[in-house]
Amino acid sequence: MVLPEFADESPMQIFTVTQVTREIKDLLEEAFALIWVEGEISNFRIVHSGHAYFTLKDAHSQLRVVMFRSALRQLPFVPEAGMHVVVRGRLSVYEPRGEYQLLAELLEPRGIGALQLAYEQLKERLLQEGLFDEARKRPIPLVPQRIGIVTSPTGAAIRDIIHIVHRRRSHVHLYLFPVRVQGKEAAQEIAAGIAALNAFRPKLDVLIVGRGGGSLEDLWAFNEEVVARAIAASEIPVISAVGHEIDYTIADFVADLRAPTPSAAAELVVKSEEELRQQLAALLARMHTVVTHTVQRGRAALERLLASRPLREPQRMIYARQQQVDDLLLQLEKAWQNSFQERLKRLRQATKTLSRLNPRVRWQRQRAHLQTLQHRLETAMRGRLTLRWETLSGLTSTLNSLSPLAVLGRGYSICRDATTHGVIASTTAALPGQRVEVLLQDGELLCTVNHVQHKEVSNGELDLRTSAQAPRGDRGSAGNGGP
After folding, report:
1. What CATH topology corresponds to 17-111?
2. Which residue in 205, 324, 346, 422 is deepest, having the highest Cβ count within 10 Å?
3. pTM value > 0.70
4. Domain range annotation of the chain
């Protein structure tokens, strides 16, 4: 968000109400994308659309909350005014009124919020890892002989399992690994029991992991990650039997099969002899029906084949096929002749075309054309060279007339400093006693300046002034060297 600048040198930016509201909405949704808020429900109401609107307040402040119908349906209880709850959601702004509000996704009574949050987080993480996928779940053996049980040795769950299994089939062997099923150490013991029964020899057919009913805190050991990963790592199929039918734990999602109760787990894993007889009878009846229908369909197909004319009179089929072969041969011969005549015609036309386009004739014609072009090129080149030579001669004459050497040939000279070789163009640049070079047409003179005479124009009259004279006796004089 760009804030307005009030300095004199910066232009002031003006926002509309909508722009400000949207900026605030973006900031809130980015900063509070997921937030848990605790408070008391007030003014709870459900409108005709099925969405719930209420206020969450504490001793000093209040916050408007919206829970949409899809999230409201997931609640295991009915919210009421005065209920102390923890709400999970994200902050947003209702733009038409410019009010900020909490969009609730989850609502739970205060007291189980921390456990529920841990449950949801672990469940989501294991779901993303694929531990709940149906593809990794294994089938439970139909008639297991050795069943491992991980539960408390003193609870009602083990007594129910033993009673139901022995009532249904007395020759089934049960192997109990006693563990604590609630408390801080329970999860580690349950995981250790699953690993130990996997290492037991002879290998067990199936495992039952569970306990009787209780509160969320009592069942929490089966929501621990260590138990979930132990079930996922088990080589033996696992049946989860935790609590009552309405209780769901992480172990239920990871196990190969969920039983509503420990008693139901025993009934699922150990079929009674009567159930097995009924299943076997049903399978036999189904197999008999399938075999009977298959035989009937095969007999009907055989009868149709026996009644068909090709099998009763195969010679007719042979004659018909022979006649078709003769027709195909005649068509092939006719098509070959037509193709031959067409290709012969195309060959003759190509021969005539080739005769008209004799390469020798075309070569001679192109050669004559090339000679003509070569003659025209030579003529054009000679004309352009003559024109260029005349131009060059004129430029040479002009250059010679403008050459400094030509000026020197008319009696003029150039005076230069003997040391720096710079041209002396004014008497102000020469001093008495200075060594100078005087360039002539056929050479140069090395001279010494005896005196300098300046020419100045004052009031239209030429004024001659002479500087101090140098001692005479040096060779040459610079007074006559210039133009």
Report:
1. OB fold (Dihydrolipoamide Acetyltransferase, E2P) (2.40.50)
2. 205
3. no
4. 17-111, 119-271, 272-309, 409-466
